[in-house]
């Protein structure tokens, strides 16, 4: 049975590329963009060989609806966005099995789950009922295919790096070693905002590179890309560090199934207050 894989980060990259290609030409709204994907969510040039495809209907520069379809054309997912560039879901997000049966129904308000979440088996039997308040999961109930109660388990569990997020940050930043010439490019970049005194006066962040990537169902890192950067001359080194991760994550889980999950790791570069040592790669 196909697993649900969030497409938003890759869609944002594709849409961002389209905006770059258009240069400064004005964008007309509403508009629609269609992208085809293979089984690993890699974009394809057209429908030939596509495992699924997605249609992004944009109402203005931020509001949009993303519809995802199975290869045969059946609707797989409907997600309304209050702010697509920031990934803020607002409204009812709905998914379906390929046979047309409702799979999940979730309510969002301003990017947070709010109210009821329902999940169903392919034959329409209720699988789970959860309630959320301000994004917090309240006690719910789970059922087996016969409708009998079973021990409760969370609807979503994010991927987990061995040792946690702090060790992931360390494992990435320790692989980034900018040259002296690259560090000199920071000169004059951040000093205007240096604090006069205080606990943080010995260093000041002047460059941040956010790398987004996918954690596969096997716990491997795939398809890293730079989501945001204020030090583009170091982008490739940071990407190489993320590609070099050898430890496997515990994969993300959605409704009891392993799923591909999007993650992001920030790498922050600091300069020292003039006359003090420069700290590199996240202050290490």
UniProtKB/TrEMBL annotation:
Keyword Glycosyltransferase annotated: no
First and last residue of the signal peptide: 1-21
Source organism, top-level taxon: Bacteria
Keyword Signal: yes
Sequence ranges assigned to domain TonB C-terminal in this UniProt record: 206-269
Keywords for the protein's UniProt record, in alphabetical order: Signal
InterPro entries xref list: MORN_2, TonB_C
UniProt-recorded name of the protein: TonB C-terminal domain-containing protein
Lineage: Bacteria, Pseudomonadati, Bacteroidota, Cytophagia, Cytophagales
């Amino acid at each position: 049975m196909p697993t649900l894989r969030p497409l938003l980060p890759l869609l944002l990259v594709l849409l961002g590329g389209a905006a770059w290609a258009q240069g400064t030409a004005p964008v007309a709204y509403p508009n629609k963009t269609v992208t085809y994907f293979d089984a690993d969510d890699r974009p394809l040039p057209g429908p030939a060989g596509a495992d699924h495809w997605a249609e992004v209907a944009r109402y203005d520069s931020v509001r949009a609806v993303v519809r995802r379809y199975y290869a045969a054309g059946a609707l797989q997912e409907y997600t309304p966005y209050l702010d697509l560039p920031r990934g803020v879901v607002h409204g009812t997000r709905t998914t379906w099995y390929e046979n047309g049966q409702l799979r999940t129904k979730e309510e969002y308000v301003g990017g947070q789950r709010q109210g009821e979440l329902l999940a169903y088996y392919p034959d329409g039997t209720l699988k789970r009922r959860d309630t959320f308040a301000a994004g917090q999961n309240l006690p719910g109930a789970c059922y087996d295919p016969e409708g009998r109660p079973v021990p409760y388990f969370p609807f979503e569990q994010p991927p987990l790096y061995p040792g946690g997020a702090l060790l992931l940050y360390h494992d990435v930043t320790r692989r980034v070693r900018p040259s002296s010439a690259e560090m000199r490019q920071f000169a004059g970049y951040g000093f205007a905002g240096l604090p006069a005194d205080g606990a943080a006066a010995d260093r000041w962040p002047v460059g941040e590179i956010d790398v987004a990537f996918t954690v596969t169902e096997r716990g491997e890192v795939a398809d890293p890309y730079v989501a945001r950067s204020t030090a583009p001359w170091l982008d490739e080194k940071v990407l190489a560090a993320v590609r070099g991760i050898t430890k496997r994550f515990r994969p993300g889980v959605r409704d009891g199934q392993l799923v591909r999950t999007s993650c992001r790791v920030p790498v922050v570069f600091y300069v020292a207050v003039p006359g003090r040592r420069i700290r590199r790669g996240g202050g290490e």
